[in-house]
Amino acid sequence: MRSVLAPSLSLPLAATLLACGLTGCASRDEAAARPDLTRYYDQEISWEPCSREQDRTVRDETRDAGRTAECARLTVPYTYDDPGKGELRLALMRYRAADRDHRLGSLVVGFGGPGVSGLGQLGARGPDGFSKAAGRYDLVAFDARGAGAASPARCGTGGGLPEAARSRDEEDGPDAAAELADRVDDRAKALRDCAERTGAVLPYLGTAHAARDLDVLRAALGEDRLNYLGYAHGTRLGAAYAHRYPHKVGRMVMDSVDDPAPDLRKNALARTAAYQKALRHAVEICTRRGDEDCILGSDTDRAMDSVTAAFNRLDEHPLPWVGGRTLDREAAVTQTMGLLRSRVGLPEAPNLLAAIVHRLRPGEAAHMAQEAVARAGGKDSGDRDGAGAATAGVNCADTRSRYTADQVAAAYDDFVEASPVFGPALAAGMAVCTGWPQAGDDAAHDVAAPRAPKILLHTPEFDPATPVAWLHRMARALGPSAVTMTDTGGGHGVYGSSDADCVNEKVDAFLLEGKLPADRTRCT
What we know:
Blueprint: H1 11-19, H2 28-33, H3 38-41, E1 48-49, H4 56-61, E2 70-77, E3 87-95, E4 105-110, H5 118-125, H6 133-136, E5 137-143, H7 173-198, H8 207-220, E6 226-232, H9 233-244, E7 249-257, H10 264-287, H11 300-313, E8 319-320, E9 326-327, H12 329-341, H13 349-357, H14 364-376, H15 389-397, H16 405-410, H17 412-418, H18 423-426, E10 455-462, H19 468-478, E11 482-490, H20 501-513, E12 521-523
Parallel strand pairs: 4-5, 4-6, 6-7, 7-10, 10-11, 11-12
Antiparallel strand pairs: 1-2, 2-3, 3-5, 8-9
Helix pairs in contact: 8-9, 11-13, 12-13, 12-14, 13-14
């Protein structure tokens, strides 16, 4: 039977035990009071082809995964402090290492969201979507508590975030803000309904609980240390793990690094500004080529003004679009954001913008942009602003910040100032927890891990969903274990992308050989 590793001890208690030679200075009553977690840590995972999975949710999530994907379940308690309160079964999926003779172990992949299906994300990328990692590691993903097939938080058909207020010109600004407040109120009611449907797991959806699940998973995989690759919110989960279990951290990589101490208003504004920055970057890629090669022209400021005006026109005058559909402002914002998040799709963004600015009928450029958005669909969006109860459950457990509908409406102009294109939609990000019945806890913001081995952090300079400033905030919060890296490109969660050679090379060197780049490396 595998030996059981107890959860990490607090520093004062560890120092006391060490001073006593581990011979029993600690009170026997204290030891007896700690719950017995042996049955969770002694689990052995039974893998089988995902195609044999009986659970319909797992079948749906793994439909793109291919025949080599294997699935399993892992049992964890609602709360590790009192396992008797109930249990849930996490859904797992893996691709086995291609080079079995030189296998390095398991690499657990934590995707963003939060609240998205890790199985679905891993299946959409496939083993080839992780550069060279799949050659030497078993890639393992999971549906975290509350998501996908893991005792999900449940919403009815009205559980999503309502549409944000439309953009506005100087004449209809107050109406837009009032409309946003009404929509936030509607969402709060729907979210309360989500919470009621979710049931007993509701208070236990936060990142702190998920970090303890990761350690049970590590043990069940037979690993002494956790090798981990996190994207977006998955980086915050990795940081929480390093904070609690620093001596169990193996090779850990964080890509598109999240804010370790989230506040909904500050984060939503920062993300809005980052999308505007990424939009300008995409336009500038085109305008630098000059008038002959860029239909947006050669003046970046003028092109940005034209793009803003064109998006505002879509409010009242949608554009005939691909497949007989129409492109209204909401659809245009969604498609543009999708391209800006995708390292592969980013070069197609100017084509989409040019079609909107010049009101071109669907042609080759529009179809290319549409296909690029579809290709990007398998990537982590990282910013769905509380699309359901699972997302809200994690986000709201990890922060005390709560904002009323009136406060969101009052901040509307700040969002439009940060981005006249994306601000009207992203202002609703302040309302992720409006109506959520559980109080948040800022204790999860402490991710200091000074005793952990080196951790590699990377964010592109033009990442629209996790601003590069969050990379540096996370590095400061982790402490001396953090090694940071940026690159001069865009996209979100770019490790494994086909056109991120420098990033892939350096991350591969760390994951496969343990070779770290110099701190503050900048890929060009």
